[in-house]
């Protein structure tokens, strides 16, 4: 237990750094027993065992399975840069439950001072594919009280991204592309949205656990097509330009004409 950033007792609690606990807590998509029962029943005939699903559906709609951890931000107040400073415990669950499928927040901690963040977005928004809504949700959250120290780039609404075709190509977002609110300097986000780049549908539900070997290979092939922009001859160099842009600016080195063309092609700069 912490209070004001310092241990409140001499007792030491272990186990919170267990990889299984961390992955299960942050990837918990079954928020309530009844919800779990409904999803379990739809996975496959093997898993649809009536006695189990019936019991789960009968449990009241309460959340029982969040990962509970002691709050390291307790007592820090506004200087902690985190709003939940009065709660002795934190309840952890999948970020998608709050409309944020991409785990940006640990990377945007100011102390990290990152230049670039590569965001692989597999959200389910339009026919099972992302449209930028989840990234925008994180941006909107940083506008709330308690997140003033987070420099997250402006993210347009989904309608704007979709209208310009940015949901089926790599997109650069941040102060390297366009001036930000309050002229903040932000990390550059390289947003890689999931889409059926080679004609294979990669929009399966998170509750689907069984895949054929052929489907598994198709997922790998689609992923490769997405990150390479379907074999684009210019994207590899543009990706490199994005990675070094902030450091080049700190060094006083102007963008090359090739890198400028890349930013013109892949940056979101509004309408």
Beta-strand percentage range: 5-15%
Terminal CA distance: 49 Å
Indicate the mean pLDDT: 82
Strand order of the largest sheet: 5-7-6
Q: Portion of residues in helices?
A: 25-40%
Give an overview in words:
This protein has 271 residues and is of the alpha+beta class. The protein is 31% helix and 10% strand. It is built from eight helices and seven strands. The strands form three sheets. Strands 5-7-6 form a three-stranded mixed β-sheet. A hairpin with a 2-residue loop joins strand 1 and strand 2. Helix 2 runs antiparallel to helix 3 and helix 7 crosses helix 8. The N and C termini lie far apart (49 Å). 20% of the residues are buried. The mean pLDDT is 82.
Topology:
Layout: E1 2-3, E2 6-7, H1 19-26, H2 33-43, H3 50-58, E3 67-70, E4 89-92, E5 116-121, H4 133-141, H5 158-163, E6 171-173, E7 188-193, H6 213-227, H7 235-250, H8 257-266
Parallel strand pairs: 5-7
Antiparallel strand pairs: 1-2, 3-4, 6-7
Helix pairs in contact: 2-3, 7-8
């Amino acid at each position: 237990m912490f209070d004001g950033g310092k241990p409140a007792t001499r007792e030491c609690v272990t186990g919170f750094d267990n990889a299984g606990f961390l992955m299960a807590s942050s990837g918990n998509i079954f928020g309530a027993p009844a919800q779990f029962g409904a999803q379990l029943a739809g996975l496959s005939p093997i898993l649809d065992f009536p006695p189990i699903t019936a019991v789960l559906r009968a449990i009241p709609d309460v959340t029982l399975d969040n990962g509970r951890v002691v709050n390291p931000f307790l007592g820090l107040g506004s200087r902690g840069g985190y709003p939940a400073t009065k709660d002795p415990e934190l309840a952890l669950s999948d970020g998608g439950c709050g409309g944020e499928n991409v785990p940006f927040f640990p990377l945007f901690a100011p102390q990290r001072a990152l230049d670039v963040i590569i965001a692989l977005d597999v959200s389910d928004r339009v026919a099972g594919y992302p449209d930028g809504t989840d990234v925008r949700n994180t941006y909107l959250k940083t506008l709330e009280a308690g997140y003033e120290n987070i420099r997250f780039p402006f993210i347009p609404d989904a309608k704007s991204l979709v209208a310009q075709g940015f949901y089926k190509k790599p997109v650069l977002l941040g102060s390297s592309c366009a001036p930000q609110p309050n002229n903040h300097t932000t990390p550059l986000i390289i947003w890689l949205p999931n889409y059926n780049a080679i004609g294979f549908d990669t929009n399966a539900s998170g509750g689907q656990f069984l895949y054929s070997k052929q489907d598994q290979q198709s997922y790998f092939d689609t992923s490769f097509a997405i990150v390479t922009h379907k074999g684009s001859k210019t994207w590899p160099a543009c990706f490199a330009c994005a990675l070094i842009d902030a450091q080049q600016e700190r060094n006083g080195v102007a963008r090359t004409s090739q890198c400028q063309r890349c930013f013109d092609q892949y940056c979101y700069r509004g309408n």
